[in-house]
Specification:
Elements (H helix, E strand, L loop, with lengths): L4 H16 L6 H21 L2 H19 L6 H11 L9 H23 L4 H20 L7
Helix pairs in contact: 1-2, 3-4, 3-5, 3-6, 4-5, 5-6
Amino acid sequence: MRPDADKVLRGIGMSLAMNVAPQMTTAFGRSTAQLAAYLSLVLASQVDGLANSLLEENRAIEALASAGAKVVADPGLRARLAAAGAGEELPDIRVSTLQAANDRLRGLLIDLHSAVELTPGDAARALEEQIWDELRESTRRRHVDPGF
């Protein structure tokens, strides 16, 4: 047997919802079991695609950084953007590793966005729109669908 995390969490959630919660004798007990069931189902829906979502987002921000290196005037920021745009060699693809890279890239994206907002010209406006597009897409990637 291979314990797939998403299937295990889904099984726990369903068992809590269908078997445990109805047996609770207090409203607090039922509510706690239902909350645990819901959280298990939400986590189950996130486990399978989380690494892929982080990888997608990291690549998108790296592309924005590469484009930003050609638009911003500040030499220090330009160098940081160029380095990020070249892509980071990660030691592994664990979620914690991808999340740490994502945190660094999102911090850089904030700096880029701030600089682009203050930069005149069509290239800056186009990049600003691309940044907003990625922020919307990032929100979509984080949409929680518990699957029930």
